[in-house]
Every structure is written in C-alpha cells, then in structure tokens.
Task: inverse folding
C-alpha cells in the first residue's frame, strides 16, 4: 500500500505543518531573531537615548531592555531554526516564543520604532503562517 503524501512530497504523519509554510515561518522568525541580536549588540555599550528637560539632558539607561532583547533574539533565532522542521512541538514553542518577542518589541517600540515595526511585521507574518497551517499530525493509513 502506497503511503499518502502531502502536496510538497513529505510523507503524512512525519510533519505537523506542511513543509513550505514551516520553512517560510522559520525563515521569518530566524530573520527577526537575527535582526534583534545584531541591532541590540550595538546598543550594549552605548545609551543613545536622552530626554531634554528644563534642567538639561537626562540620559536614559536601557541596558536591561537591551539584554532582554538579546536573550529574546537568541531564543527567537533558535526557534526559527527549529520551526523549519515543522514538528508539532516546535510550532507550539515557536508560537510561545514569538508571542513573548512581540510583547517585548511592542514595549520597546517608542525607543526604536523602525526596528520595532520591522520585527513586529516579521513576527506577525510568521504567526499568521503558523496559525493558518497548523493542525494535528496526520495519522498513518491503516
């Protein structure tokens, strides 16, 4: 008896998400994670944010936010690589990690709007792909 296959040729029961959407979602998430890591590595040693007040300039220290973004960026990058496998647990872990990264990027949006909008777009695109193509792993016939 011939095994059933998904439209992209992967055997049924092997992947929870069809291969191409999983690769695309993984690439989007990994790209967003790499952008987080690279952009916030540069902010680790400097504090580029100041506020002008009546008494002068006040420097805003964002080291904690920067380190949080670095950790989230590494987690998102690794999750993006795992998402490309299309496994059920990777999809669920990816949704969790990306949801946390979306929250973190949304909180830091006023300080870095360009990076925030780009990262949010990549994250939301990946979540949309994962949610549209998720599903229980198919059972083998018989």
Result:
């Amino acid at each position: 008896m011939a095994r059933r296959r998904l439209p992209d040729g992967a055997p049924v029961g092997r992947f929870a998400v069809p291969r191409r959407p999983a690769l695309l979602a993984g690439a989007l998430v990994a790209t967003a994670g790499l952008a987080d890591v690279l952009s916030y590595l540069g902010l680790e040693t400097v504090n580029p944010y100041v506020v002008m007040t009546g008494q002068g300039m006040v420097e805003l220290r964002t080291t904690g936010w920067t380190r949080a973004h670095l950790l989230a960026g590494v987690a998102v990058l690794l999750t993006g690589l795992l998402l490309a496998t299309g496994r059920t647990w990777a999809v669920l872990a990816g949704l969790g990690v990306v949801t946390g990264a979306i929250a973190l990027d949304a909180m830091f949006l006023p300080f870095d709007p360009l990076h925030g909008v780009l990262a949010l777009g990549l994250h939301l695109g990946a979540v949309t792909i994962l949610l549209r193509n998720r599903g229980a792993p198919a059972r083998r016939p018989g």
User: Anything to note?
Assistant: The CA atoms of residues 32 and 118 lie 8 Å apart. Strands lie at 49-53, 56-60. The two ends are 10 Å apart (CA to CA).
